[in-house]
Amino acid sequence: MYITSLFACAGSGVCIFLGQISLVISLVFNMFVLSELKDTVRIAPELFELPLPEAIKDEINRKLANKVLNNVGLCIALQNIVSLGDSIILPGDGASHTEVIFRYIVFRPIIGEVITGKIRSCSREGVHITLGFFDDILIPPAVLQHPSRFEETEQAWVWEYPLEDGGKHDLFMDIGESIKFRVTGEIFEEASPVGGQSSDKASHSSSSASTTEANKTPYRIFGAINESGLGLLSWWAQDNANAEEGDEEDGQEDENT
Fold first, then answer.
1. pTM over 0.85
2. Contact yes or no for 87/52 (Cβ under 8 A)
3. Which of 7, 28, 95, 246 sits at 20 to 30 Å (Cα–Cα) from 216?
């Protein structure tokens, strides 16, 4: 599998092309993937004084850290270098080029995984979640707890929790609240930078196209909270407390008998 384009950090609005990288293998560990990648790394002449492995590590992190790799995920940090090939210098280029196989830690939760984040904002589009290092998570209205409504004045979604007497109690999804959700889908959106053109009209067209490309979100995650136990942690805190009290009472009764 060959990956031909990389994108800047999700949500940053900047797209860059970083060349051809091949994905060798991936191992999944709760939200994160350990991906084995292969790339040809260019080291500029001014970095020749550094040990080659150190210079390559710095260049790989500069190239990948906090970037989205299409169909792989958000690159977090270099784990280790697996192997280094021979270094060559191409005609007309004083830099060295080395084929490298390395392992990189990538954020890419699996479908069905349950994650806890915080509410970043709410809109009619749904509830927007942040994990601190990744912001492009959306819970659409159709998969919120039912029934829910959007309060324009508060700019918040509200779960109309049904009461036993037939009434309802409004539970607001406020910004900053911790929320547990299940991952239901993901979208990678590929984009490439647009080259410059000579005429003013062409330059304007190129600028508009570049803006459109830059506004694309390279990696988005979709979630759902329409299950018991999902949603704001505060919703279920009382239930958990009552369950623990019940377990303690049962234990005391068993001891007494």
1. no
2. yes
3. 28
